[in-house]
Automatic annotation (TrEMBL):
Gene3D superfamilies: 2,3-Dihydroxybiphenyl 1,2-Dioxygenase, domain 1. Residues 1-107 form the VOC domain. This is VOC family protein. The lineage of its organism: Bacteria, Bacillati, Actinomycetota, Actinomycetes, Streptosporangiales. CDD domains: VOC. InterPro entries: Glyas_Bleomycin-R_OHBP_Dase (IPR029068), Glyas_Fos-R_dOase_dom (IPR004360), VOC_core (IPR037523). It comes from the Bacteria.
């Protein structure tokens, strides 16, 4: 549980609202609230033990993906992909201490609406 709290607050800009470890913790980043479930929480009991973590992903928008990647690599966090670019922007995946996927996403430039000449 402590590793998950540290992961989100130290590396991804979340603020700890409630630390009820080892059962759970409540962290927030802007309007996003994550309840981190430990092995003694009701959330842990609701998921079968043979279900792998990370079927879904947490999507976090960052302003500068390259700078964020450099900072997190220096902290030796585990990335699960290379940078992928598409029409909407660029992204990379890493995992939290419980194995959940976290997508760091830098939106691409917004298309300019142009009036006909």
């Amino acid at each position: 549980m402590r590793a998950s709290i540290d992961f989100y607050t130290t590396h991804l800009g979340f603020t700890l609202r409630l630390d009820a470890a080892p059962a759970f913790a409540d962290v927030v980043r802007g309007p996003l609230r994550l309840l981190l479930s430990g092995p003694t929480s009701s959330g842990a009991r609701a998921t079968p033990s043979d279900t792998p973590a990370g079927r879904n992903r947490i999507h976090l928008i960052v302003e500068d993906l390259d700078t964020t990647i450099d900072r997190l690599r220096k902290a030796e966090l585990p990335f699960r992909s290379d940078v992928v670019a598409g029409p909407g922007g660029r992204q990379i995946l890493l995992t939290d201490p419980a194995g959940n996927l976290v997508e760091l996403f830098e939106p691409g430039p917004t298309p300019t609406n142009r009036l006909p000449a």
